Amino acid sequence: MMVSESKVKVRYQETDQMGVVYHANYLVWFEIGRTDFIEELGFQYHEMELSGYMSPLIDADMQFKQPLRYGQTALVKTWLEAYDGLRVTYGYEVQTPDGQTAVTGHTKHVCVKKENFKPVSIRKVFPEWHEAYERAKGE
């Protein structure tokens, strides 16, 4: 199974009154990880959009284990949790600088036509992405 790793430095504006990363910022970090994962597969998300398709988020969940604070550098690990030709589920683990798990989570996406948001088969519309996803699953 392929795992992408992205480093994210915690910026002051990403913290809350308690001095820890505000929970909504983890979704932004998940997107950073997901974008890096897709690029490591050899693709660019913006090229999908230019061809008239998008991959909106349809579900997300997070579990909080340890806080991250301003000035620390987080490591975002991203992998393909599930893929069926239509839906893609990415898994994430955000680690503290000493390797402890800070946050885990998943996001689920579908590929849709930009003009009407109707779902399409990645397998049919983007066969190269389909093959790369199948390889990334490692099954």
UniProtKB/TrEMBL annotation:
Which molecular function term from Gene Ontology is one that the record holds? fatty acyl-CoA hydrolase activity
Q: Which domain of life is it from?
A: Bacteria
Keywords of this protein's UniProt record, alphabetized? Hydrolase
List where the protein spans the membrane. none
Gene3D superfamilies in the record? Hotdog Thioesterase (3.10.129.10)
Q: Which family does it belong to?
A: Belongs to the 4-hydroxybenzoyl-CoA thioesterase family.
**Would you tell me the protein name for this molecule?**
Uncharacterized protein
Q: Where does this protein come from, organism-wise? A: Pontibacillus litoralis JSM 072002
